[in-house]
Amino acid sequence: MSTHDDRFSRRDPEALLRDVEATERAKRRGQLKIFLGYASRVGKSFRLFDEGRRRHERGEDVVIAAVQPDAAPEILQIIRELEVIGCQDLGGIPVIDVPALLSRRPQVCLIDGLAYDNPPGSRHGKRYEDVEELLQAGISVMTSINLEYIDDQQDFVRELLGRTKAQTVPHDFINRADEVVVVDAPPEADSAIRAHQLSQLRQRALLLTADVVDQQLESYLRLNGIQSSWGTQERILVCMTPRANAATMLASGRRNADRFHGELFAVYVTQENLTPEDQMALDRNVTLARAQHARIDVLEGRDPVGVILDYARLHGVTQIFVGHNLRRGWRARISGTPLDRLVRDAEGMDVRVFPH
Amino acid sequence: LTVAAEASRRGRLKVFLGYAAGVGKTFQMLSEAQELKHQGVDVVVGYFEPHGRRDTIALCDSLETIPRKVVEYRDSRLEEMDTEAILHRRPQVAVVDEFPHSNVPGSPRPKRWEDVHILLEAGIDVLTTMNVQHLESLNDQIWQSTGVRVRETVPDWVVKQADEVVMVDLTPRALLNRLERGVVYPPDRARAALQNFFKESTLVALRELAMRQTAYVAESRQADKDAPYPAPATAAGLYGHERLLLVVGPAPSSAALIRRGRRVADYLRADCLAVYVAGTADLRELTLAERENLDRQLNFARGLQIETRILKGSDVAETVVNFARLNGVTHIFVTRQGGSVNRSWFGHPLMQQIVNLARDMQVTIVADRSIRRATS
């Protein structure tokens, strides 16, 4: 997944502060709910309008602000039942009527299709920016998007389908939604190639939503001061030392992380009095870790095992990979060694030992 | 010839996967059944659990329902799915709610998923529902985080073999609203539910697991289709092919080792074996209770499609590592305690001896997920 980079400092104090601020802001802001699908015609629009109708029936003030062309009959039926503040047509491009919505001030506004560019001279260049303004004004928005229209998915989409979308929405905008619903349906394909493509898109949509949910979970745990990790996502930590067979450990770590759609971390604890050879080996390992797209951190502390375990707990690690030197033969005692302590204290985490 | 082909066709299994009661699994399943009926498909309801939810019950009204079978058990009359009656009726599609259900003791088959397999073998397509927390390999994780030990589990391979797994998604906030409005449970049960599974953090975590699981099944199915004939994995130590060896024993921690090993093997698409090293041919070093526990663990492993062996040897670590080498094992999985009973004769726990001997393999010491850490 391409979401490795932006999720690193999740459990840091700064992140906690951000969460608290976000919670404060959320009290004044409208709520954003996104229905995410992996292709067209999986039922996003219906889910969106169906929820709008049910909210309307329960007494919420719901207004439709954008519909897609060629709406299905069951959707047209809902549209007839609800109030519509339609888009303005600017040279053939539908643009949300933000001023009309701001003066009407509904509780909830339904916008089918988030990935639209507005024509030059509009209030905002992008429809999601219109949505942002509505949210800031305290109006909740429910909207829909197809995975193909998310900005950082374009490389994946190009590779898979040979084409990309010109009008995209930033992934970060999806991440910041209060709720994301994945609209899943088994792919109906007319060819093996199409089946393959749809399956890939579907997996991606599910995993992308799972990542959004994972961030919400971390944020919830942080806000409520809960230390434990659920281990919903596999996170692998490779402990590098100058002597460890880092190439094997990192390659295996990458492979495992990929198979689990998890994250890979690599750390080393600074040591004094390293020989030049050891320093070179360590530098080489860091280069290898970078090549495997691991998140790399240098840790400091007099107690390497304790430092590594603190780091692992902080980042919700589920598997620790360590090297173990066997040159002293099978009689070598493990008891009392760093490995022994690591195994004993790595509560809730698997420890994988790589001989070297 | 057509008749023969028809008869040998296995039914298709479709699972509506959710993460809690009330997310809409049964509703979506019945909507699909209605749709199929509309298209002229012969659909029956094999088992349906109404839970007093009006919208869902309404969907069932116009569908033919096979009456349940009444079973007497310890002075009570319980109702189960009547598998034989469904077989006799021979519909094209049967709707079977609550896939992980355990049947009343004494039923022909202990688990409903086994009944479903009978229907599939008879060529009947099945639509069914389950929540992700009923997956066997997640059992320890769920216990550790919620304190709830889910008893009705489904082996992962059963779900993985499904032709389709569809995620039925509803946000936890929407679900909690439904619970408060009394849509999911009557008020007293709703209050109890809020104390257990319906904590927001639990719902969020389960939802994430359900999404990852659905993606995983889709990925495995696609991998099978993209490469229908994987290279035979018989050659020992074949590069790129991994083979896991789980060292088990009578201790309860072995169950967690087996679940975790199975899960890792599945994701790595690796083979998985489990061994116990016996000091004597007749296991006389174990007490009767230990022997029973060992049997239970080995049966449990076999139920998860893990091949099991009892090896004989006086030195456990040496026996394990030699077996591993001969069988092309790439990873050995042990518990912290070693899975054995008082067998650390050399003063080192088994885990340490294995690490020292298995120079050509990786050794994973599996976390003891049977211990509950203090959480919310």
Summarize the structure.
Chain A is of the alpha/beta class. Chain A has 12 helices and 13 strands. In chain B, 41% of the residues lie in helices and 18% in strands.
Radius of gyration over C-alpha positions of chain A, nearest whole angstrom: 25 Å
Shape of chain B: globular
> In percent terms, what proportion of residues of chain A is strand?
15-25%
Which geometry of chain A do the CA atoms define? elongated
- Main β-sheet of chain A, in a few words? 6 strands, parallel
The amount of beta strand of chain B, in percent, is 15-25%
Average pLDDT figure of chain B: 87
In order across it, which strands form the biggest sheet of chain B?
3-2-6-7-1-8
Strand order of the largest sheet of chain A: 3-2-6-7-1-8
SS class of chain B: alpha/beta
Q: Any idea what the radius of gyration of chain B is? A: 23 Å
Mean of all residue-level pLDDT scores of chain A: 88
Name the assembly state: heterodimer
Number of helices of chain B: 14
Biggest sheet architecture of chain B? 6 strands, parallel
Strand tally of chain B: 13
The SSE string of chain A, one letter per element, is HEHEHEEEHEHEHHEHEHEHEHEHE
Share of helix of chain B, binned: 40-55%
Low-confidence stretches of chain A: 1-10
| Contiguous helical run count of chain A | 12
Structural class of chain A: alpha/beta
